[in-house]
Amino acid sequence: MQSNLPSKLVLLAATSALAGCVTTSAPDLPRFTGKSSELGFSAATQPATNSGVTEVQRKPAMVKAELWGQLGESERVSILEVYDVRVLPSDAYGLIIDAQGQDQSSAGTNTGAALGGAVASAAYLDHAFRGGNSYSAGAGLAIGLLGAVIGSTMDRPATAQYQFRYTVQHGDGEIAYFDELKSSAFRHSVGVCILTPSLTLVSQQVCKQTEESLRARYLAKHQAQPLEVAQQEQSPKSAQPKH
Questions:
Q1: Residue 99: φ, ψ to 5°
Q2: Model pTM greater than 0.90?
């Protein structure tokens, strides 16, 4: 009778695993889709550079597409000499005007471990007291723990999951909804400027950008630099005393 114990243990392990499968199932996750394009921008056309010439690192700049088209060719070239421009279509950015959230976190389960240990202990007791077999408390405990370990593989840990729905007003005034699924309870605030569909936070100046602010921010400073250099070059000559 003792020789049948290994085969019974194998059967017991399979029974415990099946018990865990029957009692435990994976959580149903909400369907979430998103575009794979890079932040919704299209790169601005840049002037060609000579081969072998090291390019100067340019500052990043985001410009609305409708404003970029209103600039003259010379103005665009002047900006591209200093800035790495990304032209944003009207549906690639917007203001969050509403945000709603839902806690979809789930608690962990231990049903598989409990049931696996119980089935293993019951099977060992049935074997020990049938046909004159001896019972060992240590062996019974070990079998119960083995069943619990096997059953625990079918349990699932606790998960933190939150879903947020943002109402976004695009640059052209159109309204769109975007869903975000994450493990943190922190979300974007209403009124902030974001890129879509990535929901990346950007400067408020992007959403508030006008033709006047665009020229003041990217052209006025750039055009003022040559004038300052010219004034500095002329000032030493004017300061020389007359003979």
A1: -145, 130
A2: no
